[in-house]
Amino acid sequence: MSTPADAHLYAQETEFALLAALLPVLKAKTFLDIGAEKGTFAKFLLDRGFTGAMFEPFPGHHPELAALAANTGAKFFPCAVDRTDRTAQFHIAADEQGKTADYYHSLLKIEHDDRVHHTRAIDVQCRSLASLAAAGEIPTEIGILKTDTEGNDLAVMQGLGPVQAEVLICEFFTEGLYAGWEEAHPRGLIARAEQLGFSQYIAIKRWAGQELVSLKPAVFLPKQWGNLMFMRLRVFKDAAEPLQKLVAASEQRLFETVATNTRAAVEKEAVIQQLLAEKKTG
What per-residue string of b and e applies to 98-131 under the rule 16 or more CB within 10 Å gives b? Predict the structure, then answer.
């Protein structure tokens, strides 16, 4: 994978490894999966004894999520989550042949992009987490709140109201990737998370097929994408040792990849020079 348009093909083992390190120290064994897509994230937590709710406005994923909810007791809401309750246009992505894609559907339209084609829109119901909590449809104390809304995660964070989570996971993109998802820049997400009381975070940063996990503070470069994993100070302290080991392992993998690529480039150049020399003498 070298382009963010392939992001959903990424297995995201790193996120799940980090999450597994956090689960034992969480007090609330509950989750909200916003932008649940096909339910992979929810299944990971349900298999580990968590209960929770899934939110997904794209109709193509509804049968699978409804079945998952029926089989596990999780809740499924076929709506989008936003700053406020409203009816909004939900932009449906298609591939180059015009076939509806599985991913990249968003409340925020992308135009003039060769990778994501928002060709039509449907009306969807939007709810804020504050509204859902006020109606008693979700609890206010959550173990893990995960958002993956294709550029709209900041709006979700701005509509939390009384809802509090021990861990908050959201997706980010830096400048140069998508025109229309500017609110997904990590700068604004980090600032909002700090306002919500999250003093610690881990950044899983991807660029050109490479991956690096950074503990706060993290520096971001253009055309990066990945996930921010915010956590309360107590959670970070209780899980510090396994988290630090995973960060170190990520750095080691990156250095090993660079070293391997460098050796391959040197060997390739040596072969080229040898062939050129043989051609001269021949």
Answer: eeebebbbbbbebeeeeebbbeeeeebebbbbbb
